[in-house]
Amino acid sequence: MKMTSKPHECKQDRRHQGSRSPWPRRAVMSLLACLALLAAGCLVGPDYQAPRPDLPEKWTAGPAAKAASLADRDLAQWWTVFNDPILTSLETRALESNLDLRQARSRLRQARASRGIAAGGLGPELGVSGSYQRSRSPSTASRYGGSDSSVSDLYQAGFDASWELDIFGGLRRGLEAADAELRAAEEARRGVMVSLTAEVALNYLELRILQRRIAIARTNLAAQRRTASLTRQKQEAGFVSGLDAANAEAQASTTAAQIPPLEASARQTIHGLGLLLGLEPAALIAELSPAAALPQTPPAVPAGVPSDLLRRRPDIRQAEARLHAATAKIGVATADLFPRFYLTGSGGYQSSAFQSWFAGAGRSWSIGPSLSWPIFASGKIRANIELQEAVTEETLLAYRQTVLNSLREVEDALVASTAEQKHRRELAAAVAANRKALDISSLLYAEGQTDFLNVLQAQRSLYATQDALALSNGAVVTNLIALYKALGGGWQIEAGEAQVN
User: Fold this and answer.
1) How many Cα atoms sit within 13 Å of 198 on the Cβ side?
2) Taking the CB of residue 250, how many other CB atoms lie within 10 A of it?
3) Which end is more exposed in the chain, N or C (fewer Cβ atoms within 10 Å of the end residue's Cβ)?
4) Helix runs in 42-98, H state only
5) Residue 231: other Cβ atoms inside 10 A
6) In this structure, what DSSP letter does residue 17 have?
7) Class of domain 48-123+169-338+380-499
8) What pLDDT does residue 72 have?
9) For residues 221 and 206, what is the distance between their CA atoms, to the nearest angstrom?
10) What's the whole-model pTM score?
């Protein structure tokens, strides 16, 4: 809006300069004071109330649920409990360079900028304009064949100011919603951190499991090839049939065939870790190709109490922030039912000569309140209010669903951890028994006191139980990682949040 003075306005100002009264100014000031009081005290729409879901007092998933409560500082870098320097290094680098996390940070900056836009709507706006125009127009004589013409200059400068007085709180509700959406973006970033740290640990663990399975396969292959060699010698000496030699060769070849797929999976897992660190696929091959032992699990499984999830899980905090934003937007929609009040003003100078640009005759100004009120909108405003109320109801249900899912994830991780501990103990006993059976059958076979079928069966059983034990050892660690993820660990590392208890 560009405001410039007009000739008749300037004349009117000169006529009334000597008879100004203080009452109009007092009336304007009184009106502004009343509007300010109204703006400070009126806020349409429902006030947000944080939900209080019903949560169990403790976990029910067996002995693991009886572990001591876990402090936030222990959750911040939970991967350090495995005492694996390579894993710790991978986690640190992932938090610095993972592309998904960097995108989440960019979305957080977008939300912060959007909040600034909403906050700017509460304040006044001021604009400045200026122009210069030189024009030529024919004179009266030139219209009848003459040659006279006139050239004129026009200088203009001014400002416009406007301020929407938030009488019914629509702008403040919008700022409230923007604040909540900013918190939701922050929790989304933290949720990416939780998922990222868990994915890095799971991929690293998968690599170590594959390397362990490859080592077991190679050890069994070497033993089976020695047995096949012994069987061939017995065949050549006429002590066994060709069937025994063929079975021995087949067993060794079967075991050898299982190694290449395991090696391919190990290489692909390294590629996946490179992607998680924002690197090219082959960047970590030299670092991670050497085999290493599985990370060791702590003696106790931490769990805490269910109510801790409300403040620890970023997805719950994000859902709660979205509910707050949706509730505030009901107020934004409701404010459209009421009039909007504005305080506007403008001023400027206009002159045909630069020397007299700021002369009093060329000065103009105006100030005063205004309002706009949509009296009839064909039901759009009411429909928008109903829309926002339905969105809020859906968001509340999504919040409750998120809480229930988090409870299920923790309970599932505790159940799996308890069961896998028992499974691992039984497999360890089976490996010991099968190793003893293989030793005995091999000795008896060498002495000619048993047939080769017993040796073959013992070899197969030992290899199967050793491979299953390697998988179970990995599952124990996997369940612990899943528990840390379900508890919301990994995001407290930033901004000193790890010191919060």
Assistant:
1) 20
2) 13
3) C
4) 72-76, 85-97
5) 25
6) G
7) mainly alpha
8) 66
9) 22
10) 0.82
